[in-house]
Specification:
A hairpin with a 6-residue loop joins strand 2 and strand 3. Strands 2-3-1-4 form a 4-stranded antiparallel β-sheet. The protein is built from 2 helices and 4 strands; from the N terminus they run E-H-E-E-H-E. It has helices spanning about 15-25, 50-65, and strands at about 5-10, 30-35, 45-50, 70-75. It has a single domain (about 5-75), classed as Lrp/AsnC effector binding domain/regulation of amino acid metabolism (RAM) domain (Alpha-Beta Plaits, 2-Layer Sandwich), CATH 3.30.70. The chain is α+β, with helices and mostly antiparallel strands. About 25% of the residues lie in helices and about 35% in strands.
Length: about 80
Amino acid sequence: MTTKAFVLIETEVGRTKDVYAALHNQKAKEIKSVDLVTGPYDIITVIEDVDFNAIGNLVTEKIHPIPDIKRTVTCLSIRVS
């Protein structure tokens, strides 16, 4: 079963389009969607990977290094049965 997470991204002022383009250029199959949003965050991405550790690695290795990202918050999806 895959693990899903929502990564909320705050960018530097005026750099949202650059960060959005960089996320699209990642070509990572784990990044399922990238959306510009209003509110306290500028971009929300949906990512899926095999487990929590893989999600953490994806965020720290592929998302955090993108220039002009000011802050991220990763929200792991949980399933209640």
